Amino acid sequence: MVSHEIRKWRKTISVSLSRYMAFKADFFLMLVAPSFVFIAINYNIWRSVYQSRGGASISGFSMDQMLQYQCWSFIVTLLVRSHRTWNLSEHIRYGRLTAFLLYPFEAWKFYASEFIAFQLLQLVTAVLAVSVLQVFNFLPPPDIGAYAIGFGFSLLVSVLWFALDFTLGLAAFWLDEVWIFRVIFGFFAVLFSGAFIPIELFPAGLQSFLTYTPFPFITSVPAHLFMGTSSVSVWSATVTLLGWIGSLILCAVVVWRRGLRLYNAAGI
Amino acid sequence: MKQSNLPARDPLCYRSGTVKEAVISCQSLAKEYLSARKEPGFLGTLRSFVSPNRVKVSAIQDFNLEVERGEIVGLLGPNGAGKTTLIKMLTGIVPPSHGVARVLGYEPFRRPKDFRRRISLVMGQKTQLWLDIPAYDSFQLLQRYYEVPEDEFKKRVHALGEVLGVRHLFHTHIRRLSLGERMKMELMACLLHNPDLCFLDEPTIGLDVVAQKQIRDFFKAYQRDHKTTIILTSHYMADIEALCPRIVLVLGGRKRFDGSIGEFEGVLGREKFVTLSFAEPVDRSHPIWTGLNPQWDEGGTSVELQIEEGALRERSIAILSNFPVVDYSTEKLPIERVLKTLLANPHLLPG
């Protein structure tokens, strides 16, 4: 029974990989280009900011630390975030979900497998990116312990991201257009996770508020774990993260069950 | 929705052995949903934005149905009659609003894994295959999902591919296949796990006549060999005539006819459909045509008549003696015509 289940996951992941890689140009544009454009913009903006201030530190971040933070933010983004579950909303809206409701492999497992497949590709890209950044001295010499913790924690955060993204996608059971919610969520995720501006630069009140949300886990916490500058211990961060993951999975289950009652399998 | 208190699988509803098995059993099944109504124009949009007008629509009402193992049942009805909604409920895609449905002994909307393993649905207007990969990759994925042993899978996929004539296309991306080829792959995908119950929702839609016939012939042979229970909806009467000994007519969400195809053909009375051609135009106002529902061609040299079976000989002799007939043919009232007449005049249906 267990081996059947593993084989289903493995095959779905392998088919998803084949689909992503079916078109080379599309594959490159989807996987590599957006991340590299993002880091190029971030890196250059922050360098200009520091140069205009004569290299003075900002909220305890020296220019080198800030540029390193931006590099790690880019790596964490690759490891944690993807938008592969965006197609869930489309599937609900246009009735493609029907096929997944009929297979003896739960629909969420299919979307999770697709997500894992994409994250595997992003993991390879992230490892290559770290190597390139090391070679060109954008990052200090590797600290294996911090890297192991950073990679492990980031992969756990990707589960949180999947649960968040999946739950948002389920809004399509109620709404015809879900993309605006996703755009708003994406904006807040970038802003409040510290992907562009480190959370330490936010006003104290906002910083304190964000500790009660899952946003810092999306970039700030794993980036600091990679840098070895985290203010929270890895164990307490992991426990809190697991709490968030559990809550979001519970939320997704409830939303899924309610939403399914409204599904009308449009188009057939 | 009323939830039945029965367990997910009721062994009493599905008996093995030689006793007749109820593969599908519905009692008072109904499906209602809310539909938004909007008046035309900008004002209508504004009004609908402020206060949406939602009305309750009954897609299926008080529907009872029993289908036994190995039956092929044709679901007939115009667009919007409720056929597809019925299939959605029977496959567990949507929950019924009222009533009880048992399919293979299971309550469909609970969708237990064993239930899903034993059914399949072919949607003529939707693909379940992945467009960006070759069909064989999709088949392998389905093999894993349905836990089909490797040897059995290989045997089945090659046998089905051979019969449908698509083996040479297994490694071509689905998006590069023609509609007919894609539909054959869809059929393969739905039969790979050898389902006990197969729902075919317009499987020949959009196909050319040759491909339609191939698919009909394939299903005829497949059902003969495997005794699979099949529920077919199609707007092509040729599909229904070729495959379905039993017809269920759905109109306005209600079951209006359930019987053999022979009984369906006889709903309008036992009439023969007679076509006559004449050497020259004939008198259309002659009293001989009265009550025969004549359908003349433009030149008045050809006519189609509906004649009661019992009066066929007498009326034919009369026509042949009075007019210069050069060609004469007779057939049963085509099912397509029966359906058209019934859709236009539902009051003619019994009950």
Question: Can you walk through the features of this model?
Answer:
The complex is a heterodimer of chains A (268) and B (351). Chain A has 268 residues and is mainly α. Chain A has one domain (2-262). Chain A has 13 helices and no strands. By secondary structure, chain B is an alpha/beta fold. Chain B has helices spanning 41-50, 83-90, 113-118, 135-145, 150-164, 179-191, 209-226, 237-243, 261-265, 312-322, 335-344; strands at residues 22-37, 53-68, 72-76, 98-103, 119-123, 197-201, 229-233, 246-251, 254-260, 271-278, 295-296, 302-308, 325-332. Chain B is globular and about 70 Å long. The model of chain B is unreliable at 1-19 (pLDDT under 50). Classes of the chains: A mainly alpha (268), B alpha/beta (351). At the A-B interface, helix 1 and helix 6 of A face helix 3, strand 5 and helix 4 of B.
Short synopsis of the structure:
The complex is a heterodimer of chains A (268) and B (351). By secondary structure, chain A is mostly helical. Chain A has helices spanning 2-20, 24-31, 33-52, 63-80, 86-94, 97-102, 107-135, 144-169, 179-192, 204-210, 215-218, 220-227, 234-260.
Protein traits:
heterodimer; A: about 270 residues; mainly alpha; 13 helices; globular; B: about 350 residues; alpha/beta; six-stranded mixed β-sheet; 11 helices; about 25% strand; disordered N terminus
